[in-house]
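Any chance you could type out a protein's amino acid sequence plus the matching backbone structure tokens because I've never seen that pairing?

——
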Amino acid sequence: FLNNTHEWCAAGIEPQIERLQNVPFDDSMLFCRTIKRFGFVDYPSIDELPAEAAVDRAVLLAQAIQSLLAVPMVANQRLLGFIGLDSVRKPRSWLDEEKTLVTLVGNAFTGVLERKRADESVRASEARYRSVVESVKEVIFQVDAAGRWVFLNRAWADITGYEVAQSLGANCLEHVHPEDRDAQQEMFDQILRGEAASGALPVRYLRTGGGYRWLEVSARPVADADGRVVGLSGTLNDITNQKEHESRLEYIAHYDPLTGLPNRVLLNDRLQRGMAQARRRGQQLAVAYIDLDGFKAVNDTYGHQVGDQLLTTVAARMKTTLREGDTISRLGGDEFVAVLIDLPHTESCLLLTQRLLAAVAQPVLLAGHELKLSASVGLTMFPQPEDVDADQLLRQADLAMYQAKLAGKNRYHVFDTVHDRSLRGQHANLARIRHGLRGGEFRIVYQPKVNMRTGALIGVEALVRWLHPEQGELEPASFLQAVEGDPLAIELGDWVIEQALAQIVAWKREGLVLPVSVNISAHHLQAPDFMVRLQSALARHPAVWPGGLELEVLETSALESIGQMSRIVESCTAIGVSFALDDFGTGYSSLAYLKRLPAARLKIDQVFVRGMLEGTEDLAILKAILGLASAFRREVIAEGVELVEHGELLLQLGCEIAQGYGIARPMAAEQIPDWAASWSPPPSWVLTPR
């Protein structure tokens, strides 16, 4: 439709603007067809219009128009309207000058309309941009090359408490925590110098009235029309809650929840640093392995609550006897390890050890009872004539502690050559195990793994047994430690994998599709040709499907070489072999370890499962582990389910997959099908609410 928006009439001419509203702009009129083609309409005489303009004649004569000149107003190939001249008193032929004048006026009006439309578009765009910028929760910022705030949105005031108007023009580092200023400035400088296209960094920003918020600073360069970098723009995203959650998880991962002392992972870090410091300074370091004598009797007599209080008190006393820089950690139960640094000679270590013994021996009054303990302490020194690592020092101190216990307790023992003599016996053990493996004395039994709620059999764990001619059937604890680190461990591990793959295929032929997990040592996994041998084994059994074989590696072993272990796990996953971290919780994996080691499943150590019904400490650790597993989206399986109550509590905590003597003891391969057909979970497990 057409609408007459402006009209100028000579004196005595009746205006037509009100009549010319919502006029159909269709092809019935030659006028409309011409204007749509961006053509000039030149009607010198309305009466003389051709037959094709019959509609035009009727419309124009109704307005007493004798002649008409109209010019389209066009911008960017769009028809905006038209401008024209009417003659109502007499017909006339339009002069070229008049046509030119109308064209120029039309062009001028077109320019004005386009500028108006562009201005309105810009204002609308700016309004939309401002609305979006001011409504987001993240701070949107811009700084100049000197680091001064040029722009901040409303979220800045919401997060920091500082008014936007007061902050603009100030250097951005004035609002950054002093400890984080150098890091942010370095990131900004790298972007400004063109050394980085963008950057992101967690930084603490100060708040009005004290305190700070963790903000993730994301920035990229801002360039002028000539392409020169004149500042930075980006966002500040509030990650305070995430940081606080990470801090809580890090504490759980590095500190003992009962005593607040460092756990095994943090102990290992500090021991490594202490060893490096001892080398640099040319001084000695001592590792003291401390086991409390008589603690089990107190626990059995007075209960776990009193036992936990006693452990907490004794741990605090031992900590106060040590110097600044020394570390005492709790490994678990009643075992502790102290790392004593900056020792000028062995005698200074013995003095500190006597103070530890005295601290443990002090009576503790709890629940109206005076309780007394003593300690057996094993000591080892560093450096030694031969190169040793942190794990060796701990093993040496452990052996020495055992010697202190044998000598009568409440004393210390320094590691000596007894350990070397035991190695000679180790070689004899290795020879006998090798003979048994190659002589067919070993066999595999399988322990079912089930879903406690549904009763579904989801897999089995392959467990090796030694049918010793003289000693009868021996479990792995009797011989695996002897082969640890020896090539025989690899030979034994390969044999177990081969037996498991063959059994998977055999069960499959019988219609039983059952994944099998195999325990494997870190030493075996890290062998240079491990992947080649594993692929060859899988090639010999092509019927094994991806996921049919799972390898379980001890958590404490996996932590020893996390980078290499992560690469091995990824390679195995690529060929359809899954992984699980066995005895999870005994090594207290840090968040970084969990993130880098892509194990599909975590197996909770049976120690925590067995103790969770009575010990609040074990239950707390179990809950923490399940929380970590949930945070990292890892499947969890619990070991050591021996009682119906174990299963009930695990199900309440959200853990459905388990194995243990309360479900089934390890059995021969041929017994598995019948067991699977007949077993069902206790009713209380099925009815346990999710």
The chain has a mean pLDDT of 88. The longest helix spans residues 96-135.
